[in-house]
């Protein structure tokens, strides 16, 4: 009777017959955001023990560390907001002696400043122009810096780690957190290609449940999906005038 029971169990759940192949273990991978509007990549390093497949099949956790590298650039909408505010800013500066003094003092040590060549040129042009017209110099300087910042890109990193449990029925690694702040659940899965097991995809589903409070920050959040994959585009068209590295 016991043999018949085990046979029926295996027929009902055929995935129990499958062992977890070593090739199905995530290790070190570089993935790219599949959304062309999101310029980022994801580096994955998992603390995989190749001789512990049975442990993972029984629900043992696999810890993975992630480094998300993002390249960002100011939007055209933000540039427009800044340009709309500039006339007021210039008017305010010209009425404030301390502000004017801080602008003129820049020129005394500009050649010593360790800044990029293009940015230094904006400062040098300002210091030349200030000798003939203070207001024109400050106006041109603020406009030039506004456009310079708009055309500059920033590279930053976000670090996090997750514990995954293997789901045999779906042939996927899954990490799910309990609903936390703002009543949000994050479900993250790691899946690989059946024919090419070393090619992986990272999928994060953020589910925003019904809010129990009227917190201004929480009520503006929406459910979303983020996918990083080996199929993502590695190239980025950013038109960066300069690049700054953020911590």
Structural description of this entry:
This protein is α+β, with helices and mostly antiparallel strands. The chain has two domains: 2-72 and 159-240, no CATH class; 76-153, no CATH class. It is built from six helices and nine strands. It has helices at residues 2-12, 53-57, 76-94, 97-106, 117-129, 134-150; strands spanning 28-33, 40-46, 62-73, 152-167, 172-176, 184-192, 200-208, 224-229, 242-245. An eight-stranded antiparallel β-barrel has the order 1-2-3-4-5-6-7-8. β6 (184-192) and β7 form a beta hairpin. The protein is elongated. It starts with a helix and ends with a strand. The relative contact order is 0.17.
List the helices and strands and how they pair.
Layout: H1 2-12, E1 28-33, E2 40-46, H2 53-57, E3 62-73, H3 76-94, H4 97-106, H5 117-129, H6 134-150, E4 152-167, E5 172-176, E6 184-192, E7 200-208, E8 224-229, E9 242-245
Parallel strand pairs: 4-9
Antiparallel strand pairs: 1-2, 1-8, 2-3, 3-4, 4-5, 5-6, 6-7, 7-8
Key terms:
single chain, 247 residues, alpha+beta, 2 domains, 8-stranded antiparallel β-barrel, 6 helices, 30% helix, 30% strand, elongated, disordered N terminus
Number of domains: 2
Order of helices and strands: HEEHEHHHHEEEEEE
Biggest sheet: strand arrangement: 1-2-3-4-5-6-7-8
The protein's oligomeric status is: single chain
What is the beta-strand fraction? 25-35%
| CA gyration radius, whole angstroms | 27 Å
The geometry reads as elongated
The unreliable regions are 2-17
User: What kind of sheet is the major sheet?
Assistant: 8 strands, antiparallel, barrel
Could you give the count of β-strands?
9
Distance between the termini: 64 Å
Mean pLDDT: 85
Q: Number of helical segments?
A: 6
Q: Find the structural class using helix and strand composition.
A: alpha+beta
Q: How helix-rich are the residues, as a percent range?
A: 25-40%
């Amino acid at each position: 009777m016991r043999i018949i029971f085990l046979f029926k169990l295996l027929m009902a759940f055929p995935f129990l017959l499958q062992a977890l192949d070593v090739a199905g273990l995530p290790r070190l991978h570089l993935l790219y955001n599949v959304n062309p509007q999101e310029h980022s990549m994801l580096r994955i390093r998992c603390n995989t023990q190749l001789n512990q497949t049975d442990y993972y099949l029984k629900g043992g956790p696999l810890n993975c560390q992630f480094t998300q590298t993002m390249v960002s650039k100011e939007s055209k909408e933000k540039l427009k907001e800044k340009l709309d505010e500039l006339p007021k800013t210039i008017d305010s500066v010209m009425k404030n002696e301390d502000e004017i003094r801080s602008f003129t003092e820049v020129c005394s040590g500009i050649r010593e400043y360790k800044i990029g060549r293009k940015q230094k040129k904006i400062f040098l042009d300002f210091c030349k122009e200030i000798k003939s017209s203070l207001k024109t110099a400050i106006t041109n300087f603020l406009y030039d810096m506004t456009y310079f910042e708009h055309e500059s890109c920033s590279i930053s990193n976000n670090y996090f780690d997750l514990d995954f449990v293997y789901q045999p029925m779906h042939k996927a690694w899954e990490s799910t957190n309990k609903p936390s702040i703002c009543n949000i659940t994050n479900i993250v899965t790691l899946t690989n290609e059946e024919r090419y097991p070393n090619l992986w995809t990272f999928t994060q589903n953020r589910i925003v449940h019904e809010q129990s409070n009227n917190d201004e920050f929480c009520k503006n959040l929406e459910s979303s999906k983020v996918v990083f994959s080996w199929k993502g585009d590695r190239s980025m068209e950013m038109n960066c005038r300069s690049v700054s590295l953020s911590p």
